[in-house]
TrEMBL record:
Enzyme's top EC category: hydrolase
Record's protein name: GPI inositol-deacylase
Gene3D superfamilies according to UniProt: alpha/beta hydrolase (3.40.50.1820)
Localization of this protein: Endoplasmic reticulum membrane
Family indicated by similarity: Belongs to the GPI inositol-deacylase family.
Keywords from the named record: Endoplasmic reticulum, Glycoprotein, Hydrolase, Membrane, Protein transport, Signal, Transmembrane, Transmembrane helix, Transport
Organism of derivation: Pelodiscus sinensis (Chinese softshell turtle)
Length: 919
């Protein structure tokens, strides 16, 4: 039984590690360029009113500067556009330097016609993603900072009326929370950019203050959308390299209700095209450049501030973050223009053509007719190697062989890819368009290549069904493209769930004499901006990971597409397989925060199994053996699924509400498109494996500590049956209650945990010694049994029974300390927060662990001195043995999205244990 269980749970633990490995290590390398400061960065502290400083002694406001610019700003005579940077969880106010430095260099390039003043807030590197008690305080402080910043400009000619906010991680959520303040004026913010901010829900919901803060912010933005109608919001996620905040959490809740909100993953941002981790998103040069370019394009020439037109703000953000047409931003791109220069007419006989120019000294226009191809083809597609030309493709409504009348710029329909600029036009949308004109600039010493073709959309679209989730990579779906053109669209049928994960293999071959080119593969997700781009030479064998950040909405009928910008006369073999390791990685990515819930659920089942065995056989089984017997998924998962199913009926939902039961977490997950029946089973198995090997590790540590204690002191022997409560224990309990109330509840929990651990180490050591002595005595008694008197021989059974009782108690205590370990771990963020701020206040307020601590320290004296003898004789023992099972179900039902509830279920089982010792 033990060997089989070890093998089974070892496999489960290996699968869990496989999923974690996929999340943490199987991603692309960091391809971001580092931003550098060319002058020493300086942070000028802004003096705040005394009232604000006294109210927020741990927070500060700074103005960023470098070199001469920093010297000029020391008198606070400011004329720029204010931008406020808010750091995130444990973030530094100095993270503003990447934005500030690049914006300063950009302003120098235009002789400071426009420039920005970057402010930053010092939040004392608080861990607000783990402790939500200070989020409201941070929000109120930011409000005061905005008012102070705007007062600095009150005597200026172009005084700003609002500020731009850039928030990293939790800083973005604090910025959104400003609108929930009663006295906050929404017009104080005109543009909000968030970087890797978990907008949907907290990554680790460790306290009620955190979840309540999220609820208040998201409800306000959904229910009071009119308050944010003039605020333009851009949320940028890091992609799969960000394993701290998955990109799905950065999607703004109720985004469809806000026409002024935009979500994009950094891998899809033009001229960035890289995934960023949680920290590099603030210094990734490619992404920072896109942000600063957008800032300068947002400036209104009349007011010299950010434009007050929400429509223009969205156009600029789409231009730089969604579809970059390889030209400067124009508010009205469909403008007629005069084509000045040589116009060369080129007659096109076939459906595709290539034009090459070497060492061209003068810019020229090349005109191609469209009229002969309209009846046969539906689209025209062009690829240009010109990467630095602003306007390069035009349309003619009326032309001759030498002139183009009424030409208008079509470059805004183009798109920049890593190696080429491309444009695809649907001819039906331009019925009066007679010719295309391509502008070729002076390219001395260089080569310009233009590839164009006419095609029918159906001939370039291929449907490729993805493999089943449970095919485990054993089957594949394949298609072969004998390329005769420049673009193909492979529609990935039935790829719409976050738990799907695939490997796409593209093998390309070309004619031996064909010029070697690069191909661009883009995995395009139409319902969200989370595209990924891969560049590969031809011929080659390319591997692409296909995973989703956001599931397809129910009312969306679009299809995920693999765009292949190919070379003609080449063959592309596209194969797709399910990647089992990445499927597990997706489960871990989306539900890793819930793993403690399933581990604790398994420990509770083992605890209930130990009590049942104790009552039925008189002997308590070891934790690992009890876990192997009691941890069965069918005891927990079916109940949760049945309740979720019944909640779909109004009568059951009404009954549920009458009982004042909280919303089932599975229902919340289902609303976020994250509920999949087998996920709970997989997490339960992962939890079982982790709990199993955690129990073995804990036993090894306990043995090591007891051996260390033996080398330091002499054990007193087995503990005698004593009173559960003494004056000393009452005094210790009162003292710890006082510590909980006046300092930090998590601190008191840690103290009682260490005390409990110390007692178990001593008990373990004493049991080992007494068992060794008993075994030696029994061996000696067998050798001299004829010489032992009846009185002496009758002493052995009594000693054995006493040791058995203590061993049983030790096994129960080991399981209890296992449960307490998780309570300590879940309360640890509050302890760290309190310790970091100890110099400002000795009392943590608010304290999410105070109630838990008071209950634990009040009953700890009885709990750590309890014995199985008292439990077996208790009237409540049968109830105590049955309760862990429903508590295990309750933990899974109400804990995944609300981790702070889990300790209360554990404490309830421990209180029953205490009552069994009393009654």
């Amino acid at each position: 039984m033990g060997g089989g269980a070890a093998l089974f749970y070892g496999a489960l633990a290996a699968l869990a590690l496989l999923g974690v490995r996929d999340v943490l290590f199987l991603h692309e390398e960091n391809r971001c360029s580092m931003t550098y400061m060319y002058e020493y960065p300086e942070y000028l502290k802004i003096k705040l009113p005394k009232k604000i400083s006294r109210r927020y002694p741990t927070y500060e406001l700074y103005l960023y500067g470098e070199g001469n610019y920093a010297e000029e700003n020391k008198n606070l005579i400011l004329t720029g556009i204010p931008v406020l940077f808010l750091p995130g969880n444990g973030g530094s106010y100095k993270q503003v330097r990447s934005l500030g430095s690049i914006a300063l260099r950009k302003a120098e390039d235009i002789d400071f016609k426009y420039h920005f003043n970057f402010y930053t807030v010092n939040f004392n590197e608080e861990l607000v993603a783990l402790y939500g008690g200070s989020l409201q305080r941070q929000t109120r402080f930011v409000h005061e900072c905005i008012k102070v910043i705007l007062k600095l400009y009150k005597d200026q000619e172009y005084a700003p009326k609002s500020v731009v906010i850039v928030g990293h991680s939790m800083g973005g959520l604090v910025a959104r929370a400003l609108l929930t303040l009663k006295n906050f004026k929404p017009e104080l913010i005109n543009l909000l950019i968030t970087q890797a901010t978990p907008h949907v829900a907290p990554v680790m919901p460790l306290d009620k203050y955190l979840t309540d803060f999220y609820t208040a912010v998201n409800n306000h933005w959904i229910l009071k959308a009119q308050d944010v109608r003039n605020l333009t919001t851009l949320s940028v996620a890091g992609g799969f390299r960000d394993y701290q905040v998955r990109s799905g959490l950065a999607f703004l809740p109720g985004l469809s209700q806000h026409s002024s909100a935009l979500f994009v993953v950094s891998s899809a941002v033009p001229r960035t095209w890289v995934s960023t981790d949680h920290l590099s998103i603030v210094w990734c040069k490619e992404l920072i450049l896109a942000t600063i370019r957008a800032f300068f394009d947002l400036i209104d020439e009349n007011t010299k501030q950010i434009t007050e037109d929400p429509k223009k703000r969205m156009l600029v953000l789409n231009h730089h973050f969604v579809r970059y047409p390889a030209k400067f931003f124009e508010e009205d791109p469909e403008t007629f223009t005069e084509l000045k220069g040589t116009l060369i007419w080129i007659k096109i006989e076939s459906s595709k053509w290539t034009y090459k120019v070497y060492n061209e000294s003068d810019g020229k226009y090349f005109m191609f007719p469209l009229s002969n191809h309209r009846k046969t083809y539906s689209h025209v597609h062009c690829q240009s190697s010109m990467m630095d030309t602003n306007s390069w493709i035009y349309g003619c409504l009326n032309s001759s062989s030498s002139m183009c009348w009424e030409g208008f710029d079509l470059s805004w329909k183009a798109e920049l890819l890593p190696t080429v600029k491309v444009v695809t036009l649907k001819l039906q949308e331009y019925p009066s368009l007679s010719n295309l004109v391509i502008y070729v600039p002076a390219i001395n010493g260089n080569k310009f290549t233009l590839d164009c073709e006419f095609f029918k959309e159906d001939s370039r679209t291929v449907q490729l069904p993805v493999t089943h989730l449970f095919s485990f990579g054993l089957s594949s779906s394949k298609t072969v493209l004998n390329s005769t053109g420049l673009i193909y669209n492979v529609q990935l049928q039935h790829f719409d769930q976050i738990y799907q994960a695939f490997k796409i293999y593209i093998e390309s071959h070309c004619h031996p004499r064909k010029e070697r080119k690069t191909s661009v593969y883009r995995l395009h997700i139409p319902w969200s901006h989370e595209d990924s781009i891969t560049v590969s030479k031809v011929p080659s064998f390319t591997e692409i990971s296909a995973k989703l950040h956001i599931a397809q909405p129910e009312n969306d009928s679009t299809v995920a597409v693999l765009n292949i910008y190919s070379s003609s006369d080449c063959q592309y073999e596209v194969t797709i397989k399910t990647s089992f390791s990445q499927v597990l990685g997706q489960v871990i990515r989306f539900h890793s925060a819930s793993l403690p819930v399933y581990i604790i659920s398994n420990v509770l089942l083992a605890y209930g199994g130990q009590l049942s065995t104790l009552l039925s056989t008189g002997q308590c089984s070891d934790f690992v053996l009890a876990l192997a017997k009691a941890a069965k998924p069918y005891k927990v998962d079916p109940i949760v699924n049945i309740v979720k199913f019944l909640l779909g009926f109004n009568w059951f939902k009404d009954l549920w509400n009458v009982l004042f039961l909280p919303e089932l977490d599975a229902v919340v997950l289902n609303k976020q498109d994250m509920w999949f029946p087998l996920v709970s089973l997989i997490l339960f198995l992962f939890g079982t494996g982790i709990a199993y090997w955690g129990g073995i590790f804990f036993s090894s540590v306990l043995r090591l500590l007891s051996s260390l204690w033996l080398s330091l002191t002499r054990p007193p022997g087995l503990p005698k049956d004593s009173k559960l409560m003494t004056l000393r224990r009452v005094f210790v309990a009162i003292l710890l209650v006082f510590v909980s109330w006046t300092t930090c509840g998590a601190f008191a929990i840690l103290i009682i945990y260490l005390h409990y651990m110390f007692k178990i180490v001593k008990l373990h050591l004493n049991v080992r010694i007494e068992q060794n002595v008993l075994n030696m005595g029994q061996k000696h008694s067998k050798e001299t049994s004829s010489e032992i008197s009846p009185e002496a021989s009758s002493a052995t059974p009594t000693t054995t029974q006493a040791i058995d009782n203590v061993v049983n108690s030790l096994k129960i205590h080991i399981t209890i300390i296992n449960l307490l370990t998780w309570i300590v771990l879940l309360s640890l963020p509050s302890l760290i927060y309190w310790f970091k701020n100890l110099r400002y206040s000795i009392r943590l307020d608010p304290d999410p662990c105070r109630t838990t601590a008071i209950i634990l320290v009040s009953t700890s004296g009885i709990l750590m001195n309890s014995s199985t003898v008292k439990i077996k004789s208790s009237k409540l023992s049968k109830i105590a043995a049955q309760v862990p099972l429903p508590l295990s179900v309750a933990v899974v039902a109400f804990g995944p999205m609300h981790l702070y509830r889990v300790p209360y279920f554990v404490i309830f089982s421990l209180l029953l244990h205490v009552l069994c010792c009393i009654v």
